[in-house]
Amino acid sequence: MNFLSFKVLKPAILCLAFSLALSLAGCQVAAPAAPTASTPVAPPTKENQAPAFTLPSSDGSTVSLSDYAGQPVLLYFHMANG
């Protein structure tokens, strides 16, 4: 084996050894957790209600939490481009 071929093969051998080490390190698979009974959610009280707020909606209008009084509300946030 000449020096040039070893110089070319050395990175490939190191990469293969590193890949093998990583794959063997991650072989331990945990058993899935057993399903548990869901805990009922406590109804909202004055102490755990969301504070009043107003936010812009996706169509540019403003929406207030008070617009949905007495109804369940789900807030969906996402990163805007720009």
How would you describe this protein?
With 82 residues, the protein is an alpha+beta fold. It has a domain at 53-82. It is built from one helix and two strands, in the order αββ. The protein has one helix at 3-25, and strands at residues 54-56, 62-64. Strands 1-2 form a two-stranded antiparallel sheet. β1 (54-56) and β2 form a beta hairpin.
Share of β-strand residues: 5-15%
Q: Helix/strand-derived class?
A: alpha+beta
Strand order of the largest sheet: 1-2
Q: What's the gyration radius in Å? A: 28 Å
The number of helical segments is 1
The rounded distance between the terminal residues' Cα atoms is: 56 Å
What is the typical, i.e. mean, pLDDT? Answer: 74
Main attributes?
82 residues, alpha+beta, two-stranded antiparallel sheet, 1 helix, elongated
In short:
This protein is of the alpha+beta class and 82 residues long. It has one helix spanning 3-25, and strands at 54-56, 62-64.
Topology, please?
Blueprint: H1 3-25, E1 54-56, E2 62-64
Antiparallel strand pairs: 1-2
